[in-house]
Design goal:
Radius of gyration: 30 Å
CATH superfamily of the largest domain: Fumarase/aspartase (Central domain)
Number of helices: 18
Strand content: 5-15%
Largest sheet: 2 strands, antiparallel
Number of domains: 3
């Protein structure tokens, strides 16, 4: 392997000639050989979007020459087109604030720009990672901005997959709207509902999570770019902040604005914590719904057995014919991971000190990972876990008729205490409430038909 000499503020080092990255990336690779995990491609793209926006802004404002601005922008376009992706080599666990990653990006773009100028890699006197690519910027404002942009870009496809899942639940709600069954509260027999009403509530929960994520994502649209090191904008020319954010919005096709308070934008991870909390809350709902489906499908003979899940794979290596709720189990594990990631983001958010929160890299990693695994699995879960669910109508009807909580319908007619006696007798004698009502002559046939009408019992307001 052949090398080139590079120098930074700590001294000289040999850098592999074939590498577009440089000396500061080399030091970070040596310092942080932690996980082998690299930055999410969306974070790389977002950072390069920022470098292009800043190069164009610096060129317009005279902070660098138009020629330097153009060649840096061209290098950015190459990366955005998919080239040089193997050159972003920093571990996701790294020094605080993300300086290592910022310099990795700066060095790759600088060395590629030098080649486009006909210069040698490492000829930083001609074009420098710090003085040209990073001009008017700091890691402190670019890394949070890149994180916000990456999350907004990741939110778009995730939002679409959440919509797919909600639609699957909504279709089942319509399909099951006339399947009458017993509700269960405290896991005990309760008043009648329809299977469609249960699934309609599941769909509404998915929609509520979607709305929560959309609302919290709005906080990510105000970015720190232009704040530089501490919020003052030091070393950036007048007008840089607004113009750079304007360019960034155009390049990314995102609605972005300068932070209202640049100092808060560097100090606080509130927007990240809020978005992470919304992602966690959504995942907790996914867990709850998956577990409900597991309960409703339990059996086939010794459980509730009110729904039949699609068989996607054999369920046991020892018990022939057994089928498990595999899709729900996988979704649970994904959602557990998301909830755990939120704890990491929460700890990172409270770890900010004075004028900078340096824990942005781990928050970016955990959030982007959580969004990626949800985006990948939710459409599969909808197709293989929800769309093929069938109702066990006979079992639902059986439970509907047997529930002693049908006695609740008698309360307006005979009062709570007498209805409670009917409930207890039904349980003790294993007799249905309608049978007891008829046996004791509490109601005549016409009254019974009206009071125990399934459509009236389950509410005729809205089925789904």
């Amino acid at each position: 392997m052949s090398y080139r000499k590079e120098k930074d503020s700590l001294g000289e080092r040999d850098v592999p000639k074939q590498a577009l990255w440089g000396i500061q990336t080399l030091r970070a690779m040596e310092n942080f050989p932690v996980s082998g995990l690299r930055a999410d491609p969306l974070l790389v793209r977002s950072y390069v979007f920022i470098k292009k926006a800043c190069a164009l802004t610096n060129g317009d404002l005279g902070a660098i020459t138009k020629g330097h601005a153009k060649v840096i922008a061209t290098a950015c376009d190459e990366v955005l087109a998919g080239q040089h992706s193997d050159q972003f080599v920093i571990d996701v666990y790294q020094a605080g604030a993300g300086t290592s990653f910022n310099m990795n990006v700066n060095e790759v773009l600088a060395n590629r720009a030098l080649e486009l100028m006909g210069k040698s890699r490492g000829d930083y006197a001609s074009l420098s990672p710090n003085d040209h690519v990073n001009r008017s910027q700091s890691t402190n404002d670019t890394f949070p901005t890149a994180t916000y942009v990456a999350l907004l870009l990741a939110w778009q496809p995730l939002n679409q997959t959440i919509d797919v899942l909600a639609r699957s639940y909504e279709k089942k709600a319509l399909e099951f709207q006339d399947i009458f069954k017993s509700a269960r509260t405290h896991l005990q027999d309760a008043v009648p509902i329809t299977l469609g009403q249960e699934f309609g509530a599941y769909a509404a929960a998915i929609r509520a999570g979607e709305e929560g994520l959309e609302a919290s994502s709005a906080l990510l649209r105000r970015v720190a770019l232009g704040a530089t090191a501490a919020g003052t904008g030091m070393n950036a020319p007048s007008g840089f902040r607004r113009l750079a954010v304007k360019y960034l919005a155009e390049i990314t096709a995102l609605e972005l604005f300068p932070a209202k308070n640049t100092f808060m934008a560097l100090q606080s991870h509130y927007p990240l914590a809020a978005f992470s909390a919304a992602l966690r809350n959504f995942s907790l709902e996914l867990i709850r719904l998956a577990n409900d489906l597991r309960l409703l499908a339990s059996g086939p003979l010794t459980g509730l057995g009110e729904i039949i899940l699609p068989a996607v794979q054999p369920g046991s290596s020892i018990m022939p014919g057994k089928v498990n709720p595999s899709m729900m189990e996988c979704l649970n594990q994904i959602a557990f991971d998301v909830a755990g990631g939120d704890m990491t983001v929460a700890l990172a958010a409270q770890a900010g000190q004075l004028d900078l929160n340096v824990m942005t890299p781990i928050s970016a990693h955990r959030l982007l990972h959580s969004m990626e695994i949800l985006k990948n699995f939710l459409p599969v879960f909808a197709a293989k876990g929800i769309d093929g669910i069938r109702a066990n109508g006979d079992r639902c009807e059986l439970y509907f008729g047997q529930s002693p909580s049908l006695a609740t319908a008698l309360t307006p007619k005979i009062g709570y205490l007498k209805a409670a006696e009917i409930f207890k007798e039904a349980v003790a004698t294993k007799t249905t409430v309608p049978e007891l009502v008829k046996r004791h002559g509490i109601l005549n046939d016409e009254e019974m038909k009206k009071i125990f009408d399934p459509k009236l019992l389950t509410g005729d307001l809205e089925k789904v």
